[in-house]
Design a protein that fits this description.
By secondary structure, the protein is mainly alpha-helical. 82% of the residues lie in helices and 1% in strands. It has a single domain, classed as A middle domain of Talin 1 (Up-down Bundle). The protein has 14 helices and two strands; from the N terminus they run αααβααααααααααβα. It has a two-stranded antiparallel ribbon. The longest helix has 36 residues.
């Protein structure tokens, strides 16, 4: 009975994460429109940060919460590292796959073509930024000096700031994006203003912190109840919940033929995930990967290099490329299950 309650609570918190992220993303998109930023930057910077916030807060709460409550530091670090690694993994595999599923559905119905219409230059640039920052973070596990690890972590934060500034400058003045009416404007029945946008951002941010705290507690409970490694559990469960906004938003945008917004949201999110959350892990945990972590990193690199290579060669992104990304997610699960059986 107790286990059933916790499982139901996980589902409830999962839905709550999606709901709160929707509020945050709505505010972020309106902020982008108010600043007259093009869809590439709105997707890769504003929407990406908004939807990537939960998976950043989850490891942060896991790590800091363990220190503050005097809990098991190894468990807290494992959940934090797993959530950090799992975020990039879910986006490069499952999120891309579901975008492909959505595109396939509407292609079969004759409502769109087989090609995903994107800005290939922005797409390839995002992936190059991701690969560089991701490799720096991964190879930092071999750095023994904590001071050098801190320097690498600080560099990644600065690297993301550089990426964000360049992306916004390139898209400044390109008013090709639209946003739904601000939720607070609907509630208050008033006109859009920057004060309401900021207020909605603050409210949703606070809610995300609270929800993430309870979600982490449930992850720890399940890890103990099923005798599963917290790292594996947080790689497979936590990101599925926190990445739902990216998956849902991208699917909606593809349905509405806003391919550039959909895909830039995903590529922008992985750049964010390979810098800010990775730097948190490097600064606040031992930053050591076990077998599962190494396999996870390998799958991420294989998936993203496949997507990069296919677009670089053909100068276009096809539905079949997105669908193929899902195989890397399935392959990871099979490898982990096989390792547990032998």
């Amino acid at each position: 009975m107790e286990l059933t309650i916790h499982l139901l609570l996980i589902v409830f918190l999962l839905l709550l994460v999606v709901f709160v992220c929707g509020i945050f993303t709505n505010a972020v998109e309106n902020l982008g429109c108010s600043l007259k930023i093009g869809s590439s930057a709105v997707g890769s910077i504003f929407a990406a940060i908004g939807t990537a916030l939960p998976e950043t807060i989850v490891p942060l709460v896991a790590i800091i919460g363990t220190y503050l409550t005097g809990g098991d530091l190894n468990t807290g670090s494992s959940i934090g590292i797993g959530a950090i690694l799992g975020s990039s993994f879910l986006i490069t595999t499952l999120a891309m796959f579901f975008s492909g599923i959505t595109a396939t559905y509407y292609f079969k119905r004759g409502k769109r073509g087989s090609e995903i219409l994107i800005d290939t230059k922005s797409y390839l640039r995002d992936i190059r930024y991701f690969v560089i920052s991701y490799m720096i973070a991964v190879f930092s596990i071999f750095i023994k000096s904590y001071c050098l690890k801190c320097l690498a972590g600080i560099f990644l934060i600065c690297y993301y700031v550089l990426y964000a500034i360049r992306s916004i400058i390139k898209a400044k003045g390109l008013e090709d994006n639209e946003a739904d009416t601000l939720i607070l404007c609907r509630i208050c029945k008033t006109k859009l203003c920057m004060a309401l946008i900021i207020l909605q951002l603050i409210i949703s941010f606070i809610l995300l912190i609270v929800v993430s705290h309870f979600f982490i507690s449930e992850i720890k409970y399940l890890a103990d109840a099923f005798k599963i490694s917290p790292l594996i559990l947080s790689i497979l469960i936590s990101p599925v919940a926190t990445e739902l906004p990216e998956i849902i938003n991208s699917s909606i945008w593809i349905k509405n033929k806003k391919d550039n917004l959909a895909i830039s949201n995903l590529t922008g999110a992985i750049v964010f995930q390979s810098t800010i959350p990775m730097s948190i892990g490097m600064l606040m945990t031992p930053w050591i990967f076990d077998y599962s972590g190494i396999v996870n990193v390998t799958m991420v690199l294989m998936a993203i290099l496949f997507l990069y290579g296919s677009v670089k060669i053909n100068q276009k992104l096809e539905i079949k490329n997105l669908l193929f990304s899902g195989l890397f997610y399935a392959l990871f699960i099979l490898i982990i299950l096989f390792e547990k059986l032998i």
